Amino acid sequence: MTAGPARPQVSYMRVSITDRCNQRCVYCMPPEGVALKTHTAILSYEELARVIRCAVPLGVRSVRLTGGEPLVRRGIVDFAASVAAIPGVDDLALTTNGVLLADLARDLRRAGVRRVNVSLDSLRPDRYRRITRRDAFAAAWTGVEAALAAGLAPVKINTVVVRGLNDDEIEEMALAAAAGARLIWRFIELMPLGEARGFGPDALVTADEIVGRLAAAAARRGLALTEDTQGQEPLGAGPARYFRLGAGRIGVISPMTHGFCSTCNRLRLTSDGRVHPCLTSSLEIDLAGPLRAGASDAELTRLLAWAVSLKPEAHRMRERRPELAERRMSRIGG
Ligand code: SAM
Ligand code: SF4
């Protein structure tokens, strides 16, 4: 038997600091919300920071804070500062819906957060309200502006594209990015996890379709959409392809149609201390139990290394397995 290609070292950790959220996006959460972990089940900031520290010997250099909605957890600025101060962590980023960002952007930047992704699925306030079930488009957009003003760079907008829900806006969004050059706009294929399973397979707009449609819209305006091979994320953190369009940059993320498992360099930690080797598998390793039972740093690093060894060679998300219904992005953090 010949060995497969060597897996890249894990260098990137997504840390979901809360399972709570101030929105109820239709593809992510039911209107009534989901059963939340108790406060005692959620790791303290000190515990989360310790797990991150224990991941550094494995190669983790880049940390992204996510949720739920990370900005609803009190004390996030001080926590961000403590993560940025961990020796070996040289890149700290945040994924947020942006609604609370306006008041926090400057402090987060000072605390050491370098870059931010803001999730925004529509430029139309009424549609934004239908998708998020919250009337907060203006707040989210003010958050984007505040992030730019605070010097968070780059600021990326993440749009999950859902056929019939918002796919008629992708050309407008891309052209907005092309005109401004201040934002990188990224389009993401819908994954059939949690609530998104209710949409059915036709809701998926593939990355190839997105690129084709954007190229056609660009050509109608005398612009070219050209692939930008320099556009990889720092530390190779993402399955994104990047393009230049006018003065702007566009990204397309294809978890469904382009396998990226063999190059996946990420681990995910949930707020209740579970490590997920892969977004699409129900496998999770409990760190909270050992951590609270007195495990040493070396033991926690060993458990994290075990999680890395369990990363699969490929995912089977297109099979729409029933257990994917239990995989909630609001818990795992995207
Ligand atoms: N609340 C924050 C936010 O919305 O940015 C952070 C957590 S959210 C789970 C992280 C990302 O996952 C968001 O960009 C969201 O749009 C994306 N997401 C949630 N469910 C998804 C799905 N079924 N397919 C693709 N992306 C999804
Ligand atoms: Fe909340 Fe983010 Fe899920 Fe929307 S996508 S419900 S903002 S966790």
Write the layout of secondary structure elements.
Blueprint: E1 12-16, H1 45-55, E2 62-66, H2 76-84, E3 91-96, H3 101-111, E4 115-119, H4 125-132, H5 137-149, E5 155-161, H6 170-180, E6 183-189, H7 207-220, E7 225-227, E8 240-245, E9 248-253, E10 266-269, E11 274-276, E12 285-286, H8 288-292, H9 297-309, H10 329-332
Parallel strand pairs: 1-2, 1-10, 2-3, 3-4, 4-5, 5-6, 6-9
Antiparallel strand pairs: 7-8, 8-9, 10-11, 11-12
Helix pairs in contact: 1-9, 2-3, 3-5, 6-7
This protein binds S-adenosylmethionine (SAM) and iron/sulfur cluster.
**CATH homologous superfamily heading:** Aldolase class I
Give me the count of strands: 12
The H-and-E topology, N to C, reads as EHEHEHEHHEHEHEEEEEEHHH
- Helical proportion? 25-40%
Class computed from helices, strands and strand pairing? alpha/beta
Q: What's the total helix number?
A: 10
- Report the average pLDDT across residues: 90
Strand order of the largest sheet: 7-8-9-6-5-4-3-2-1-10-11-12
Q: N-to-C terminal Cα separation, in Å?
A: 35 Å
Strand residue content: 15-25%
In CATH terms, what is the architecture?
Alpha-Beta Barrel
Describe this structure in words.
The chain has a single domain, classed as Alpha-Beta Barrel (TIM Barrel). It has helices at 45-55, 76-84, 101-111, 125-132, 137-149, 170-180, 207-220, 288-292, 297-309, 329-332, and strands spanning 12-16, 62-66, 91-96, 115-119, 155-161, 183-189, 225-227, 240-245, 248-253, 266-269, 274-276, 285-286. The chain is α/β, with parallel strands linked by helices and 334 residues long. The protein starts with 11 loop residues before the first strand and ends with a helix. Helix 6 packs across helix 7 (207-220). It is 30% helix and 18% strand. The longest helix is centred in the middle third of the chain and has 14 residues, at 207-220. The protein binds S-adenosylmethionine (SAM) and iron/sulfur cluster. The site of iron/sulfur cluster has 13 residues, from helix 10.
